[in-house]
Amino acid sequence: MYVAADGTKYVSDYKANAIDIFAPGANGNAAPSRRIFGSATSLNGPSGMWVDAAGRIYVVNENAGTVAIFAATASGNAAPARTIGGSNAGFVGPVTPTVDGHGNLWVSDASAAAIDEFAAGAFGNVAPIATIEGAATTLIFPVGLRVDGLGYVYVADSTAQPAIDVFAPGARGNVMPAHRIMGSNAQLAGVGALAIR
């Protein structure tokens, strides 16, 4: 789920292959104000999602191994404005998308133990412009992902020894985290989604 600054709630419905959008203040047995659903959407196991400053909706399709990007006004049986996926994209098990201050798309790939960065506006079977991956990164099963205004990359790593890894701005390749939260005092058990302010 993603909550916009105005309180609008965006919910990915994995089983229904839908995106439900609820108005600010929606409560109880409230119907979505919009629903993206149908064969043209290409939604196939939608899971992690992000909404950028322009209102574009980014959704990971777990079953298809793609990221679908919908227009801010998308509703009903709407096709994505763009889709990223294919052999060059290299997704093995994408989980969470997020967009940085430059409009670049970041995706956590849990099954590949990697974080991929795609150029703003990227679409189709395109390769990442950068990847954080390798033994030094300590990544094992990265799921939650966010990038702050300074370019720090925050990763929730859900493993037998769960951790929050923080990579410095510009981190690329097989690099160590700048900071790491883990251990018995952290009391992390099964980290997943995360948020930053």
Fold and architecture overview:
With 197 residues, the protein is mainly beta. It has a single domain, classed as TolB, C-terminal domain (Neuraminidase). The protein is built from no helices and 16 strands. A 4-stranded antiparallel β-sheet has the order 1-2-3-4, with no helix packed on it. A 4-stranded antiparallel β-sheet has the order 5-6-7-8, with no helix packed on it. The protein has a 4-stranded antiparallel β-sheet with strand order 9-10-11-12, with no helix packed on it. The two termini are 16 Å apart. The model has no long low-confidence stretch (mean pLDDT 93).
Using the coordinates shown, work out and report the CATH topology: Neuraminidase
- Outline the biggest β-sheet: 4 strands, antiparallel
The total of helices stands at: 0
- Stretches where pLDDT is under 50 for at least 5 consecutive residues are none
Category from helices, strands and their pairing? mainly beta
Number of strands: 16
